[in-house]
Amino acid sequence: MKALARYWTKLDKKKVRCELCPHRCILDDGQVGICRVRKNIGGKLYTLNYGTVSSMAVDPIEKKPLFHFKPGSRIFSVSTVGCNLRCKHCQNWEISQVGPEYPYTRDFKASDIVKIAEEHGSEGIAFTYNEPTIWHEFSVEVAKIAKKKGMYNVYVTNGYIQEEPLRELVNYIDAFNIDIKAFTNEFYIKITGGTLQPVLRTAEFVHRAGKHLELTYLIIPRLNDDPGEIRKFAEWVNSISPKIPVHFSRFYPTYKLTDRKETPLKTVHNAYKIAKDVGLEYVYLGNTWEPEYESTYCPNCGNLLIKREFYNTEITGLTSDGRCNNCGKKINIVL
Ligand code: SF4
Q1: Does residue 64 lie in a domain region?
Q2: What is the Å distance from ligand 1's center to 183 Cα?
Q3: 17, 26, 37, 38: which to mutate for ligand 1, most atoms within 8 A of CB?
Q4: Which residue owns the Cα nearest ligand 1 atom 2?
Q5: Are 9 and 79 contained in the same domain?
Q6: Does residue 299 fall inside a structural domain?
Q7: Residue 254 belongs to what domain range?
Q8: 300 lies in some domain
Q9: Pair (277, 245) in one structural domain
Q10: Separation of 133 CA from ligand 1 center, angstroms?
Q11: Looking at the domain assignment, is residue 234 inside a domain?
Q12: C-alpha closest to that of 79 among 34, 148, 133
């Protein structure tokens, strides 16, 4: 659905500059932005995917991944089309690398999404699968309605957003998982079409705003797997807070990145060790299917707090106020 966009500036000769993400696309009349879903029509910027839904499903919240926010719950998840990055290894490229012409979508009102989530017995809504930033106007509308009904909202994002819309967003989103796709600008430019610094700024802002934050780093052989780079990433996380949960995930060849094999297990195990050595308290491995790297342990006494195996989650060692039931340490967790 087409709707007037927010966050843009009028320029000369019917040009506009979009201010939603750090690309800050300058668009002539009739031109569409890098994300494929914002268009200059007659000197005004429109969002072309307002209410346009490509997928809906109820998922374990661990699939986002969020391990320290409502563990064991299931969350209604929703997405649109388009993305402001062009990652060569995108796992959801069928919906992210297309525009509103994609035939398998349906339009909904914001209140419909909340109603459907409620009907599915979900206490929250996750904006996920493709990049929710480029659905800003609609996702904020949905999130506002959900909040009024006492539900929570989750954003799974690449973090490529300008500060003004982010300021608005954090009022309605309770938990974020932000992808840190690598810790070099070179990777971002070459593989994603974006840049690193705005993503780091977003993560820092979300943490400062007091929102629940988890980070995901997909390790790709020969692109972002250098132990020195992993260490710098872990040190940066540690400088914000050692309590931020970090998910290292294993790459499998996909989309345009099929010239290399999956990430060796020893590489992700080594990343785990580096992050723990740096001092991070909650480190997890994804796509390895090793329960010992998916479970949560008390950083103080090593007590098993949450046992995870595939998507089965069992809270074993936490008190109702989020403390280790062995030593009493307060855990960074929202139950
Ligand atoms: S949201 Fe889209 S149109 Fe706006 S700056 Fe980003 S890529 Fe360009």
Answers
A1: yes
A2: 23
A3: 38
A4: 35
A5: no
A6: no
A7: 52-294
A8: no
A9: yes
A10: 9
A11: yes
A12: 133
